[in-house]
Amino acid sequence: MESYCLFCKSGQEGFVIDYLARRGYAAFSPLAVRSKPDAGGVRKTKARLLPGYVFFDAEAVPDWDTIRRCSGVLKTLRYEDGTGALRGEDLAFVEWLKRYEGLVDVSQVVKVGTKIAFVGGPLVGMEAKVMKVNKGRKLVQIALGDGEAMFRNIWCSIEYIEGNADLDMLHQTSEKI
Question: pLDDT tens digit string along 70-104?
């Protein structure tokens, strides 16, 4: 079984997923839980983690002609060498998304000096680097791949918690998530 990625018209991800499902492909477009302020405080909503991207699996070479006929599909993503099956860090990223059924929930963090450490949620143990932290929006930008990776970074929600964790362990966790 190989995994592939399509770039679609923004807002058409659900339509493309349904189109692929009718043709026998297991497809998804990852979602992320986001905190949104409203009149009653802060509520959690779901938003596309990677707007416009749909991932799917195929046991054999996909029927690209049929897939390209879907009006929501803009292009099939391919590497410079022309191959379309995801590999390396991209494949690892998609497998990580599948472990969470395509939904990246809020990760819990604690402050360790000037850094943060992930102590709960999907980002614990993930091989990636924190690039930016937006404290106001409670978001963290994670760098995923190298120069060949299709997906270089994502924004995930975080919530700060207070805890009495072992600072040595947290320091190690803050270096590499």
Answer: 999 999 999 989 899 999 889 999 999 999 999 99
- CATH code of 1-105, in short, is 3.30.70.940
Q: In the beta sheet, which residues pair with residue 139?
A: 134, 157
pTM for this predicted structure: 0.83
For the chain, domain boundaries: 1-105, 106-177
Other beta carbons within 10 angstroms of residue 131's beta carbon come to 13
Q: Are 107 and 118 in contact (CB under 8 A)?
A: yes
Partners of 84 in the beta sheet? none
Q: CB count, 10 Å around CB of 108?
A: 17
Q: Are 81 and 94 in contact (CB under 8 A)?
A: no
Cβ–Cβ under 8 Å, residues 63 and 6: no
DSSP structure string for 114-130: TEEEEEESTTTT-S-EE
Pairing label, strands 129-134, 73-76: unpaired
